[in-house]
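User: Hello, can you help with two protein structures?

Assistant: Certainly.
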Amino acid sequence: MFFWMRKRKQIYENQKGEVLLSLFRNLFTVSKRISFCSSDKKASMTIEACLVLPLFLFAFLNIISIIELYRLQGNISAAMHDTAKQMAVYGYEYQALSGGDASIAESLGLTYLYAAAKVRTKLGNDYLDGSPLAGGATAISWLRSSVMQEEDCIDLVAEYFIKPPVAVVGFPKQIFYNRMRTRAWTGYDNAKNSTDFTDEEEIVYITPKGTVYHRSKGCNYLKLSITSVDKSFLDTQRNQNGEKYYACGQCGASCGNTVYITQYGDKYHTTLGCSGLKRTILAVPISQTGDRGACSKCG
């Protein structure tokens, strides 16, 4: 009896050992498989990350640059709007004081150079230098602007280049424009625009030393379009009639690297205060024009 009990105990212990050994083998096999599969997945994810991450960063930088570009354009437009409104107010003083004196226009801030300095001050050099603007704060060109020329309008045009955030072949710098146009506070010309009193005598415009009268106050012969150029390039400049520019008899002998020319004149000037760049405009009835003839452009 005792013998059979010991035999059963020995069989039970042997079976228990085999079961434990089998479980251990299974766990070891599963562990090896899990370890092998996990290593494969990690390698696959590393390769995918290497391929996708640069593309994601490039797309993210471009989205940020587009947002920054729109912000830059909006800030430039806002600064130009404030500057144009301020210059429009100065237009009233300009008309009341001078009737067309270029030196007074410069002192009042009615030039595109004043507009450029004002916009740059409003935005700040640090902001412009750190923006997508190629060349920084001094790279904005205002040469397409005009002040107090056509119908007393202030037309500010900012031209500049935008650089991509990351240098990519095939994507060069792009040119952009911002424009702000407003009319100076010079009042309403009743003599020109009235339709209720058609029997009144026509009002025309003359200058004290002029030989013709003008039907339009915005005539280019009255509203001088003054442009500053480097004296070394003067030989290549021509006026609207294709003529060369010669030294002004009053100020042309002065030395200077910068000279001033007009669209229809044939003289260059070394100072904006020269009387050759001034226009005193008088509104008179056509019967008081004397022996003056009609302007070839607006008469």
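That covers the first. Now for the second protein you mentioned:
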Amino acid sequence: VDVRYYNIIYEAVDEVKAALGGMLAPEKKESAIGLVEVREVFRISKVGAVAGCYVLDGMIKRASKVRLLRNDVVLHTGELDSLKRFKDDVKEVKAGFECGLSLKGYNDIEVGDLLEVFEVVEIARTL
């Protein structure tokens, strides 16, 4: 048991608020950072499906999560396995450029699919 003494009540209240604030789980918020259109799909035996894409809006980052949309229906939410520009591995591709990508554990990609790129941001909660 931790016993503390205070001369001013506000110090006790502030310390209790800080302790309770530290116990709150952070709030997770998704922020969309880009939209990518699949223009071509290549089936490679050892790799699986590789999508040739065009970045319509924003950007795509290797560390981002993606949501696969077909006819405005979400089919898959996951992570990128690889992101390439020509034959070079890249960290990000901006709007107006083409890239090749593959998704971790998912190969059912078709021409015309859209990939919504998003990041999960953790926001500290307060009392």
